[in-house]
Amino acid sequence: MQKGGAGTLSQKSLADIQKEVDAYIGQFKEGYFSPLSMLARMSEEVGELAREVNHHYGEKPKKSDEAENSIEMELGDILFIVVCFANSLGIDLADAHDRVMNKFNTRDANRWTRKNVEP
């Protein structure tokens, strides 16, 4: 189990997260953005994550007047927009995850060297 923000343990399922985001968006007349707008927004957020990763692990230090953002918050922003995107298209992310894991477990079953495998 992973720690949530501020040292708390999060036990939300993907379904819980999707419902929480839907309730948040549902209180506004504008609702979800169009798929193209969400894709653009996702691209923006991934760029912000790339910038933070570059500051923390790359050769590009922050400028002295740049705001302090965290990789955790940028990943949270990406998760939010992914959930918005899925909700707007009626996609159950837990089901999508299960389907993707099945694909990796079958297609890539022998692709990588496994740890602690006895002959």
From TrEMBL:
<keyword id="KW-0378">Hydrolase</keyword>
<dbReference type="InterPro" id="IPR012359">
    <property type="entry name" value="MazG-related_YpjD"/>
</dbReference>
<dbReference type="InterPro" id="IPR004518">
    <property type="entry name" value="MazG-like_dom"/>
</dbReference>
<feature type="domain" description="NTP pyrophosphohydrolase MazG-like">
    <location>
        <begin position="33"/>
        <end position="112"/>
    </location>
</feature>
<dbReference type="InterPro" id="IPR047046">
    <property type="entry name" value="YpjD/YvdC"/>
</dbReference>
<dbReference type="GO" id="GO:0016787">
    <property type="term" value="F:hydrolase activity"/>
</dbReference>
<dbReference type="Pfam" id="PF03819">
    <property type="entry name" value="MazG"/>
</dbReference>
<protein>
    <submittedName>
        <fullName>Nucleotide pyrophosphohydrolase</fullName>
    </submittedName>
</protein>
